[in-house]
Design brief:
The protein has 7 helices and no strands.
Length: 174
C-alpha cells in the first residue's frame, strides 16, 4: 500500500517537474536580448576589474587567492559570478541562435567554464561557511575568479567573431 502511494507521488512529481522544465525552456527561447541582459549583475558591482586587467580579453588573474576574496567582496562577489554564469550562458545561446557559424568547440568551452565556475563558487561558499580558516575559501574563490575570467574572454570571442552585431551591446552590458 505505501509503496503504491510513494510510486504515484514520485511519478506525479516527475511529471510536474517535466512540465515546469518545458515551460522554462520555452520562456528561455522566447527571451529577447534586453530581458536577458537585465538579469546580468554588473562586474563593477563586485569589483571584478580590480582582480584582472582587461577582463573581457584575457583570462589572467592579477591577484593572490587572499587578495581575490577581499577585492570581490567575498561571498557577495562569488554569488554574483554564480548568477552571471547562467545569464552569460543564455546570452551565448542567444548569440548562437542569432549569429552565424558558431563553432561547437567554443560553445563547449563556454559551458565548461560556466560549470567550473559554479562548482568553484559552491565549494568556496561551503568552505567559507563551515571552516574556521578562510584560506580554503580564498583558494576556491581564486579558482572561481579564474573560471569567470575565462568565461568572459570566451564570451568576448564569441561576440567578436560570430555575432558582431551584438558585440557593442555585449560591451555595454559588461
Amino acid at each position: 500500500m505505501i509503496l503504491t502511494i510513494v510510486s504515484a507521488v514520485s511519478v506525479t512529481a516527475m511529471i510536474v517537474y517535466a512540465i515546469y522544465w518545458r515551460r522554462q525552456q520555452a520562456k528561455r527561447r522566447a527571451a529577447d536580448w534586453d530581458s536577458i541582459v537585465s538579469r546580468l549583475r554588473s562586474n563593477s558591482e563586485f569589483n571584478f576589474a580590480d582582480v584582472t586587467d582587461r577582463y573581457l580579453y584575457s583570462d589572467e588573474i592579477n591577484a593572490t587567492p587572499a587578495d581575490v576574496w577581499q577585492r570581490i567582496d567575498g561571498a557577495n562577489g562569488l554569488w554574483a559570478m554564480f548568477t552571471n554564469a547562467g545569464v552569460l550562458m543564455e546570452l551565448a545561446d542567444y548569440a548562437t541562435e542569432h549569429g552565424h557559424d558558431v563553432p561547437e568547440q567554443l560553445i563547449e568551452e563556454l559551458r565548461s567554464d560556466a560549470l567550473q565556475l559554479r562548482i568553484a563558487v559552491l565549494i568556496s561558499l561551503t568552505k567559507y561557511a563551515f571552516s574556521r580558516s578562510g584560506v580554503a575559501a580564498s583558494v576556491h574563490a581564486h579558482r572561481a575568479a579564474s573560471a569567470y575570467s575565462a568565461l568572459l574572454a570566451h564570451m568576448t570571442t564569441l561576440f567578436q567573431e560570430h555575432s558582431a552585431l551584438y558585440f557593442p551591446r555585449f560591451l555595454e552590458s559588461m
